[in-house]
Amino acid sequence: MKLILLGAPGAGKGTVAKILTAIDGSVQISTGDILRGAVQAGTELGKDAEGYMKRGDLVPDSLIMGIMEKRLQEPDCQKGFLLDGFPRTIPQAEALKVLLAKLNISLDMAVSIEVPREVILDRLCTRRTCENPQCQAIYNVKSSPPKQEGICDKCGSAVIQRDDETEEAISHRLATYNEKTAPLIGFYEKEGLLKTVSGTSSDTVVNELKSALGL
Ligand code: AMP
Questions:
Q1: In this predicted structure, what is the pLDDT of residue 168?
Q2: pLDDT of 56 over the 90 cut
Q3: Reduced to 3 states, what is the DSSP secondary structure of residue 1?
Q4: What is the mean pLDDT of the chain?
Q5: What is the rounded average pLDDT of the residues 100-113?
Q6: What is the pLDDT of residue 199?
Q7: Residue 14 C-alpha to ligand 1 middle, in angstroms?
């Protein structure tokens, strides 16, 4: 499958992507994970992106398109991909359209996952992430804590609260989403690719998508 997952931070894009990729071997491509990996590794990209990310601002489109142009041409994308957190602005969506046409790839759908704001705020404040850039497993202190507090079940690294998941950064990220990313819903509606799914449970969202995709 070749999908774009749209939705505010905390809407469950990453969780939905993990369940769907396990079905058909598509890859999850999260620009947020790629950027956090680059920050931890101290690469040029990471140094350029870090300040924006800490503030909850978007990283410039040119940096993101540089990442995606390379990533979409890697061999594992041939089985399909789920784009999680990309595109995030109209210029990124337009650049992606050109890139996909050049690579002769067509998208199946752009899915907008809609979740009430109170649920999102609660999820993000209680979310914790494995700090190992190769793992980045997600936990929730209330609903799915690691077995041993502060330690990742999968790789044993520390589980931390992200710098951009303080209350201040979260409200800034949500405002940025409404201003810059929500307009993509209209963009993909015009392209005839939009599918809107509402649900606070990832299982409900996944089931609806499976039937829409005939899986
Ligand atoms: P995420 O994990 O998707 O919430 O992304 C974390 C942060 O990485 C965002 O708040 C942005 O600073 C940056 N980021 C991730 N994806 C993008 C993108 N497509 N465009 C611009 N910035 C991005």
A1: 85
A2: no
A3: coil
A4: 94
A5: 96
A6: 78
A7: 13
Domains and their CATH numbers in the chain: 2-115+179-213 (3.40.50.300)
Report the alpha-carbon distance of residue 64 to residue 86 in Å, rounded.
8
pTM over 0.70? The answer is yes
Tokens representing residue 78 in the block = 């041939």
* Residues annotated catalytic, as ranges: 13, 88, 127, 162, 173
Greater pLDDT, 125 or 110: 110
To the nearest 10 degrees (0 to 180), the angle between helices 167-176 and 44-55 is: 100
Helix (H, G, I), strand (E, B) or coil at 141: coil
Ligand 1 proximity of 173 Cβ (cutoff 6 Å) = yes
Contact 126, 141 (CB under 8 A): yes
Ligand 1 mean position, distance from CA 93 (Å)? 14
Burial of 114 (0-12, 13-18, 19+ CB in 10 A): middle
The verdict on the CB of residue 177 being under 6 Å from ligand 1 is no
Which residue is closest in CA terms to ligand 1's atom 8?
32
Neighbours of 42 (CB within 10 A): 10
Ligand 1 in contact with 39 (CB < 6 A)? no
Would strands 81-84 and 27-30 be described as parallel, antiparallel, or unpaired?
parallel
**Cβ–ligand 1 contact at 32 (below 6 Å):** yes
DSSP H stretches of helix in the chain = 13-24, 31-41, 44-55, 61-71, 90-103, 117-126, 167-176, 183-190, 202-213
